[in-house]
Amino acid sequence: MERIGIVGCGNLGLSLLKGLRKQYPNSSIIASRRNISELVSLQDDLTHFTTNNQELLDSCDYLIIALKPYTIISFLEEHRNFIDTKRHTIISVATGIRIQEIQTALQSTQISVYRGMPNTAADVQESMTALSVIVDPLNRKEQVSELFGAIGETVWIDEQLMESATILGACGIAYALRFIRAMIQGGIEVGFDAKTANKIVNQTVKGAAQLLIQNGLHPEEEIDKVTTPKGCTIVGLNEMEHSGFSSALIKGIVTSYQKIER
């Protein structure tokens, strides 16, 4: 893998960096941020942090743009003269910024531009990354797949679904963590200390996900295996549904989606 640049090494950018560093121990990675004082402990011979974005653009072949959505267009307009259409592949992980908007900012439709939506599980190489592309004159789709495959699973989608993928995959991390937190709190209420409840819940959620991934079944098929007649599982599930568990989650997903679409 050629040199990788991460523009905007915030929470997501840092998760990407850590995941890529594990997978590509011999590749050069350069990341930029306005204040890099908190990142210097991660610097080594092949990992470099800078406040100078021009330096990053000059040094890297793959440019992962992890800036806040409201700053990405102005960044591209300011630095378009330093982007080489014959060398650079741009991968935007900014929510709601379409490929056409990036092309307009760069004043070119003949530049390799991808959109990617990973999540912070990239840190532990368990991200779910949605990818899309319209035009790629450098023909680097395989390399981009490899890049994000290094930090988890990938799926190629139509760009029109990217906002939906953002909600399920990126925002979804927060939804899942909030569910896990509630499970832990319930565990404490029924008698466990926080550390033990945390361990039980984390492994239980991991196991539930692996059941679906490895067996390829619908969640209800696995639920049926543990909901015995008049048992404690079905009573708990029904109480959650009476309190609006599923409908609240669905409503939250739709509300998040509507926020992006505004």
Describe this structure in words.
The protein has 262 residues and is an alpha/beta fold. It has 2 domains: 4-156, NAD(P)-binding Rossmann-like Domain (Rossmann fold, 3-Layer(aba) Sandwich); 166-261, ProC C-terminal domain-like (ProC C-terminal domain-like fold, Orthogonal Bundle). Helix content is 50%, strand content 15%. The chain contains 10 helices and 8 strands. The chain has an 8-stranded mixed sheet with strand order 3-2-1-4-5-6-7-8, sandwiched between helices. Strand 7, helix 5 and strand 8 (152-156) form a beta-alpha-beta unit. Helix 3 (69-79) runs parallel beside helix 4 (99-106), helix 6 (162-189) crosses helix 7 (194-215) and helix 6 runs antiparallel to helix 10. It starts with a strand and ends with a helix. 28% of the residues are buried. The model has no long low-confidence stretch (mean pLDDT 93).
